[in-house]
Amino acid sequence: MIKQYMAAMGVEEAQYQNGDFDVNSPIDGSVIGSITLDSVDEVDTKIANAKKAFKEWRVVPAPRRGELVRLLGEVLREHKEDLGMLVSFEAGKIKEEGLGEVQEMIDICDFAVGVSRQLYGLTIASERPGHHMRETWHPLGVIGVISAFNFPVAVWSWNTALAIVCGNPVIWKPSEKAPLVALACQAMFEKALAKFGDAPEHLSQVLLGKTDVGNALVEHKDVALVSATGSTRMGRAVGPIVANRFGKCLLELGGNNAMILAPSADLDLALRGILFSAVGTAGQRCTTLRRLFVHESIKDDILPRIKSAYETVSIGHPLEGNLVGPLIDEDSFNNMQAALKKAREAGGTVTGGERVLADKYPNAYYVTPAIVEFDKQNDVARSETFAPILYVMTYQDFDEAIEMQNDVPQGLSSCVFTNDLREAETFLSNRGSDCGIANVNIGTSGAEIGGAFGGEKETGGGRESGSDAWKVYMRRQTNTINYSKELPLAQGISFG
Description:
By secondary structure, the protein is an alpha/beta fold. It has helices at residues 2-9, 40-57, 62-78, 80-91, 95-115, 154-165, 180-196, 211-219, 232-244, 267-279, 299-312, 330-345, 379-382, 398-406, 421-428, and strands at 21-24, 31-35, 122-124, 131-139, 142-146, 170-173, 204-206, 223-229, 248-252, 257-261, 289-295, 349-351, 355-356, 366-367, 370-373, 389-395, 410-411, 413-417, 437-440, 452-453, 456-457, 464-465, 474-482. Helix 1 (2-9) crosses helix 4 (80-91).
C-alpha cells in the first residue's frame, strides 16, 4: 500500500527503501520505509543552494509567485487521498483526520494565492512639505521549518505556502517519526514546479535527520527565520540559539488547553465539543482539550455523560472506521502512564487510560482515553502530557474559572460553553482568556486557516497560517521620499 501511494505522488522507491534509518508505523509497529539520513555537512550545502534560489525568487512578482502555490494546491487536490492515507499510516491518524490535514494544505494554498496580491504596505503622512512616507515589505531570506509528528504535513504547508508567495525558499526538517510524508510533499511540490516552468532550483528542500541536523539548521547564520513546532523543551533550546545570532524565530510549542463549562451551556453541544477536542488524534494535538472546569451545579449531570461517551468511542486501526487510533510510540505511552500515576498519587480519581489491543498489536500502543477527577487544580493538571488525559475540576465563580484556566505556563487554545452573553464577552475580553485562541461554544481543536494560529507564554508567541501571519516571512522597510527642492529636517531641526 505504501509503495502504491508513494508512486502515485511521484516518490521514487530508492528514496525510502534500503536506507539506514527505519520508519515504523504506529498502527502496528511495522517498518514501512528505510531512509537515508542527511549529514550535518549536507545542511550547509542545502542552505547555500537555498541562498542562490532566494536571489532569483525574490525578484519574481508576488502574484507570479502565487501562481506556483496555486499549482501546488491543484496537485494536492489530485493526490488528497494518497497523501491522507500516507499520513494515517505514518502518524496513526484516522482516515478522516488524515484527509482533513491534507484539506488544510489545500486551504492554505488558496489563502496564500490571495495573499500574493495583498502584501500591503502603508502610506504615511510626513511632517515635512514635499515629502511622503511609506512602509513596504520585502522577502526575508532562507526559511527553516521544523515540524512535529502530530501534524506532519499541515505545518509545512502553513509555512511554505506563505513563505513562497513572500519570495523565500524553504528548507524543511520533518520529524524523524514522519519522514515519508515529507518526501511525498517534496515530490508534489516538484510536480507543481514542473507545471510552473521557470522557478529557480532548490526553492524547496527537505532535510532528513535527527537532532544534530536540526541543530545545524537552527544555528546557521544564513537561515533568516526558523519556524519550529514541537515541545516547550525544544523551544527553550531553539529560541536562544536563534536569538544569539539575531535571527528570527516563529515558535509553536505546547498547549495545556482548557474548557470552562458554564451552567447556562447547551450540554449536548458541549459534550460533542469535549469528545472531539479531548480524544481526537488520540490526544496528540497541540490544541487537545486537557483541562475541563465544570460549574459545580452541573458536574453530576455532565460527568456521567462524558464517561458514557468515552465508553462508546471505538479504538483501533485508524483505517478501519475507528475514532481513536494509536499513540505515536512507546515513549508516548510511558509518559501517559507516568502522568496517571502522579494523578493517583495526588488524590485524583482515574477512569480509563489502560493499554488495549496489545495481543493484536504487540508493537503498537493503543489506549483508552483517560478522565482524571481532581478537587482542585494542581501541578499534575498544570503539566501537559501529549496523550488523551482529561483533567476535570469544578468551579463556583466565573472569574475563578478564568483564573484557573490561565494558571498554566502555556497559552495556546481555550474555550467556554455558555449561553450567558456577559460570560462569553468577559471570556474574550482583556481580563478573560490569555490564550492565542479563545472560542465560544466550540471546542479547543479544529482551527480554520483564515485565522492566525498560535499562542502566548510558553506556547512561544508565534503565529502561522491566516490573518497577517505572512508578515513574519518578510522584512519591513520604512521609506521617506523627498519630491521637493528643499531639504527640511524632521522635528524642525535647523542644521547649519
